[in-house]
Amino acid sequence: MENRRRVTEEDLLITEALIADSYGRLKQSVVQAPSRALRSAGQAISEHPFAAAATATVAGIIAYKLLGLMTPRVVVEEADVQPHATVKTARGRPDLMMEILSVILPLAAPYVAGLIQSYLGKIHPEERD
């Protein structure tokens, strides 16, 4: 049998203080995690704007394709031609991608043009007007 030292009140107080300190650091980490993630994402976007734009575009296309897979593609309508006969006609939905692009392109064009202009200005700084 080993000789063990008795647990004193001081030991309990030290343990309690260490647990409270650890819990406080855990709480602080949980609160700061979203801002750290956003800060690193913002830094990555500012360092690599074209890669970030490409990533956002690919993510949008994937989301659009997934949405397309989850919604029905053909709507079947019944039209009465004769009193006792019905004809089924199928019509496809409008091209949602073209509608989205027609709304987004006028908004994004000046921003993209500015990015390209600043990028080309960095490559050829002596040819500026």
Could you state the oligomeric state of the chains shown?
A: single chain
The helix/strand order is HHEEH
Nearest-integer average pLDDT: 77
| Largest beta sheet: strand ordering | 1-2
Main beta sheet: strand number and arrangement? 2 strands, antiparallel
Radius of gyration: 31 Å
Number of E-type strands: 2
Q: How many separate domains make up the residues?
A: 2
Strand content: 5-15%
The helix tally amounts to 3
Shape: elongated
Low-confidence stretches: none
Structural class assignment: mainly alpha
Helical residues, percent? 55-70%
Quote the distance from N terminus to C terminus.
89 Å
Q: What keywords describe this structure?
A:
elongated, 69% helix, mainly alpha, 129 residues, 2 domains, 11% strand
Q: What does it look like?
A:
With 129 residues, this protein is mostly helical. It folds into two domains: 9-94, no CATH class; 95-129. It contains three helices and two strands, in the order ααββα. The chain has a two-stranded antiparallel sheet with strand order 1-2. α1 (9-47) crosses α2 (49-70). The mean pLDDT is 77.
SSE inventory with pairings:
Blueprint: H1 9-47, H2 49-70, E1 74-80, E2 86-92, H3 96-123
Antiparallel strand pairs: 1-2
Compact description:
By secondary structure, the protein is mostly helical. The protein contains three helices and two strands. A hairpin with a 5-residue loop joins β1 and β2.
